[in-house]
Structure formats: structure tokens, C-alpha cells
């Protein structure tokens, strides 16, 4: 049984998002007020602990089982050469993940996250989105379900990432179609295009936007037309996590762009998400502003593959350690106020 048996089931899940547990939020907030520090002095670490308490439904949240899932896919529009790298790099990087040699291997390992790699039909790229919808309805559903499949009920935290040469073009198209703004407004260098390359990418994205301009703007249809398998899988995983009240840390431009079509249908979709970082890809800061999320880190990363999300996990672990381990004023015999 798949998590999203039909596109209607996907839409229904998106329309009926569960909220956090308010009693756990209140209990965690009360605990924070008792810990031996001036009120608010741990800044966003306090907010993170309270956020995690709400979604994990416990006063003292923890990350015993955290998962990083990386989805890989290839894109038909790569015939137009919109990346500084060839399509073959997607498969080569999947092999590199398997061998433990990529940035995400190091960063997920450092963060204490288990790593799941999900290649999605790499030898069958999506349809070129300047010629038609990237995916059929069945293909889009399969990708959403491949994402949902990594979400097991035992997870305390999920981060997702992607590998798919050219997918910053898909991400830009999703943002422009869903939020407005020209192709040029949303494209950037991605993995390393020069200014002429960026202009070429804008022209290709612009052609796709023109072809799909009159298409309905619901989340499924936008992902199907302008997304890719790895992009839809990230959306499916994030929505499946939400349905199970599992908190998610967001990565960069592509990961966030995958959620933009869902955000247009239901802005509450990002309520169980923390923004791990702000990517150097110029569109990312605009998406984060649209989502109303403030990134935990801003280190100039522009890698994708879940790297910025994994990097934020140790900060979240620190917030939970302080929340769990600090003494209360009563326990420590410290005066709470004058
Ligand atoms: C070796 C290598 C490793 C990567 N890991 C993530 N990406 C990133 O680059 C791609 C997006 O950039 P563009 O749209 O310009 O192709 C995605 O695969 C993304 O995850 C990589 C790219 C390369 C070359
Ligand atoms: O922010 C990202 O996700 C990103 C930026 C550049 C290249 N690949 C990914």
C-alpha cells in the first residue's frame, strides 16, 4: 500500500495537516522558564526545544533516530545544457554516496543521522519540460511515494536532500510558476554556471514557463509539469513526515523549491519545518522569506544533497541537550529573580 494511492489522496493529505501538540509546547515552555538562565537567554535554542517538543509530543524531546534521505533523478531538459556539469554526474555521485565519499556522508555522519540513498530511474530522465509535462500522473505519484517510503514512524527527525544535475532549473521553474516572477528572477549559477550560462538557463526556464502558463497551479500538477522525480520525492517525504508529526529540517534552494507548490495550496506545510541554512543560490533567501522561516545557519553553502540541513542538526541536538540536562532554579537553589 502506498502512502499516496491517488493524486486526490495527496491533495487531501495536504489539505488536512495535523498541528503540533499544544500541551507539550506549553510544558516545554514552562520547563524553559524554570531552567537556570535568564529568561530568553538561550535565544533560538529555546524556540527549537519548544518546537521539537510540540511535534514529538513530549516535554523533553530527543533525537534518538534521525534520518537523512537523498533522492536522485535526471532531467530531460538537460539536452539544453543548463548545468556546468554533465548528466552522468548524478549516477556517479550516487555511487560516491554508496562508497561514503560525498559531503553528505561526512555531514550526516557527524550529525548522527542515518543515511538513505534513493536513486529514481536515473537511466530514464523526465520529459524535457519545454516540450511537455516532466512526468505523467503515474510517474509523479510514484516519485511522491518513493519519498513517503523513507518516512518510518520511529523517526524523531528527518532531513531530505537531492542529487540531480540541472535541478536548479527545475527549482527555479517551480518558484516562478507558483509564486510569480520571471525566470531570470529565480535562476542562479547552481553548481557553477558563468553569467552566459545563467542567461541560457533563464531562457530555457522561460520556455517551460510559457508552455505551462495556463496549467492549473495545484501542488500535484505543478510538481508533475515542472518538477523531477527527486524533487517530487522530497515533497512526498516532507508531507508524509507531517502526516506523522515528524519534524523536518530543510536544506537549500532545491529542497525548499520542492515545497513551494505545496505552500501555495496550504501555507501550513512548513509549520513542522526548521530552515537549516540559507544557500548562496540567490532564489533561496526569497523562498525562505515567503515561507516566513529564518535559517539556523548562513555559511555560504551552495551544494544541495541535504548538506545544509545535516549541518544544522548538531545545533538542534545542542538545543535539546540544554533543554534536557540543565538544572531548574529550584533544583539548583538559584534565585529566580529579585
Ligand atoms: C560533483 C557534484 C556534487 C553535487 N552534490 C550536489 N550537487 C548539486 O548540484 C546540482 C544542481 O546544480 P545544477 O542545476 O547547476 O546542476 C544538484 O545535483 C545538486 O544537488 C552537486 C553537483 C556536482 C557537480
Ligand atoms: O541550495 C541548493 O540546494 C543548491 C545550490 C546550488 C547547487 N546545488 C544545490
UniProtKB/TrEMBL annotation:
<dbReference type="InterPro" id="IPR017846">
    <property type="entry name" value="Nict_dMeBzImd_PRibTrfase_bact"/>
</dbReference>
<protein>
    <recommendedName>
        <fullName>Nicotinate-nucleotide--dimethylbenzimidazole phosphoribosyltransferase</fullName>
        <ecNumber>2.4.2.21</ecNumber>
    </recommendedName>
</protein>
<keyword id="KW-0328">Glycosyltransferase</keyword>
<dbReference type="InterPro" id="IPR036087">
    <property type="entry name" value="Nict_dMeBzImd_PRibTrfase_sf"/>
</dbReference>
<dbReference type="GO" id="GO:0016757">
    <property type="term" value="F:glycosyltransferase activity"/>
</dbReference>
<comment type="similarity">
    <text>Belongs to the CobT family.</text>
</comment>
<comment type="function">
    <text>Catalyzes the synthesis of alpha-ribazole-5'-phosphate from nicotinate mononucleotide (NAMN) and 5,6-dimethylbenzimidazole (DMB).</text>
</comment>
<keyword id="KW-0169">Cobalamin biosynthesis</keyword>
<dbReference type="Pfam" id="PF02277">
    <property type="entry name" value="DBI_PRT"/>
</dbReference>
<dbReference type="InterPro" id="IPR003200">
    <property type="entry name" value="Nict_dMeBzImd_PRibTrfase"/>
</dbReference>
<comment type="pathway">
    <text>Nucleoside biosynthesis; alpha-ribazole biosynthesis; alpha-ribazole from 5,6-dimethylbenzimidazole: step 1/2.</text>
</comment>
<feature type="active site" description="Proton acceptor">
    <location>
        <position position="305"/>
    </location>
</feature>
<keyword id="KW-0808">Transferase</keyword>
<dbReference type="InterPro" id="IPR023195">
    <property type="entry name" value="Nict_dMeBzImd_PRibTrfase_N"/>
</dbReference>
Amino acid at each position: 500500500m502506498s502512502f499516496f494511492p491517488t493524486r486526490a489522496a495527496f491533495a487531501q493529505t495536504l489539505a488536512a495537516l495535523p498541528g503540533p501538540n499544544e500541551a507539550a509546547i506549553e510544558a516545554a515552555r514552562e520547563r524553559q522558564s524554570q531552567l537556570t538562565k535568564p529568561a530568553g537567554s538561550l535565544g533560538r535554542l529555546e524556540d527549537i526545544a519548544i518546537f521539537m517538543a510540540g511535534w514529538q509530543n513530549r516535554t523533553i524531546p530527543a533525537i534518538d533516530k534521525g534520518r537523512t534521505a537523498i533522492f536522485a533523478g535526471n532531467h530531460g531538459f538537460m539536452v539544453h545544457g543548463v548545468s556546468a556539469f554533465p548528466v552522468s554526474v548524478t549516477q556517479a555521485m550516487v555511487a560516491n554516496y554508496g562508497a561514503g565519499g560525498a559531503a553528505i556522508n561526512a555531514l550526516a555522519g557527524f550529525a548522527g543521522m542515518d543515511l538513505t540513498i534513493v536513486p529514481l530511474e536515473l537511466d530514464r530522465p523526465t520529459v524535457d519540460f519545454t516540450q511537455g509535462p516532466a512526468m505523467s500522473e503515474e510517474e509523479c505519484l510514484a516519485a511522491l511515494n518513493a519519498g513517503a517510503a523513507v518516512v518510518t514512524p520511529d523517526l524523531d527527525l528527518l532531513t531530505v536532500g537531492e542529487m540531480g544535475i540541472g535541478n536548479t532549473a527545475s527549482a527555479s521553474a517551480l518558484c516562478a510558476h507558483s509564486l510569480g516572477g520571471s525566470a531570470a528572477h529565480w535562476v542562479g549559477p547552481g553548481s557553477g554556471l558563468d553569467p552566459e550560462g545563467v542567461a541560457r538557463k533563464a531562457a530555457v526556464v522561460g520556455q517551460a514557463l510559457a508552455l505551462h502558463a495556463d496549467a492549473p497551479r495545484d501542488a500535484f500538477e505543478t510538481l508533475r509539469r515542472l518538477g523531477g522525480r527527486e524533487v517530487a520525492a522530497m515533497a512526498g517525504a516532507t508531507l508524509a513526515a507531517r502526516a506523522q508529526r515528524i519534524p523536518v529540517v530543510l536544506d537549500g534552494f532545491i529542497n525548499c523549491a520542492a515545497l513551494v507548490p505545496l505552500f501555495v495550496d496550504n501555507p501550513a506545510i512548513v509549520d513542522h519545518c526548521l530552515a537549516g541554512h540559507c544557500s548562496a543560490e540567490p532564489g533561496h533567501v526569497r523562498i525562505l522569506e515567503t515561507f516566513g522561516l529564518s535559517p539556523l545557519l548562513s555559511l555560504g553553502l551552495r551544494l544541495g544533497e541535504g548538506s545544509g540541513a545535516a549541518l544544522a542538526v548538531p545545533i538542534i541536538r545542542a538545543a535539546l541537550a540544554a533543554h534536557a540536562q540543565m538544572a531548574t532554579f529550584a533544583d539548583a537553589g538559584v534565585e529566580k529573580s529579585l
